[in-house]
Amino acid sequence: EKSLFIGALRDASAGCVTAVIPYLCYARKDRKSQPRDPITIRYVASLFEAVGTNRVLTLDVHNLAAFQNAFRCHTDHLEAKSLFVRYFAPLVRNEEVVVVSPDMGGIKRAEQFRQALANATGKTVSNAFMEKYRSKGVVSGETIVGEVKDKVALIIDDLISTGGTILRTASACRQLGAKHVYVAASHGVFVGVANEVLANAALDKVIVTNTIPPFRLNPEIAGSKLEILDAAPFFAAAMTRIHTGGSIVALLEE
Hints:
Elements: H1 2-11, E1 18-21, H2 40-50, E2 55-59, H3 64-70, E3 74-78, H4 81-92, E4 97-101, H5 107-121, E5 126-130, E6 133-135, E7 138-140, E8 144-145, E9 152-160, H6 164-175, E10 180-188, H7 194-199, E11 205-209, H8 219-225, E12 226-229, H9 232-244, H10 248-253
Parallel strand pairs: 1-2, 2-3, 4-5, 4-9, 9-10, 10-11, 11-12
Antiparallel strand pairs: 5-8, 6-7
């Protein structure tokens, strides 16, 4: 529907069209993992470009390099890091904290959040990551690299789908003596067994932004375990800067 609307705007002689896509669907499939696999992010990019999109604005894609390479039009990529820092800084200011990546692929994202949280709280924040291997659809790996005992563990990821990855990580943190376990993810897709995952005692709280309404979740479970942060002002500030010549980089550093 968005692509049809953009096409109609271009037909009506719109000078410039920016597609604001809070959650870019199909972006996780950014390479061939086996022969004849589709590369869906490239097809989505082609669709938007075909109808005349000049610019795409989105939040925390799964693979930033793949996103930037898939689109030939101008792209702006926002990060929810600052929203999560503002949420967690007062909550953990007097605690020993460790930021945990649920896999090796998310280490850079977790490290950027760790540095921002350390700057906001003025104290040392340690890091850790969970090993994760995937073979023929089966996920394995049980080891956490890093110290989590007697600390508040903050698991950082870009999205939650079924929640299997975060539950594995949260359970491992608990087994190693973590005091509390919180999960922060930019996008809450919440499919499959996500209700059971959120209800699990290993998780104290799950924090997401409102890029996707949590309509698949049981309202009782969502009410007790889920915290939703509003990303709309963040997008509004970005749009203002885009159309007034401001800096998106400066916005991300605020």
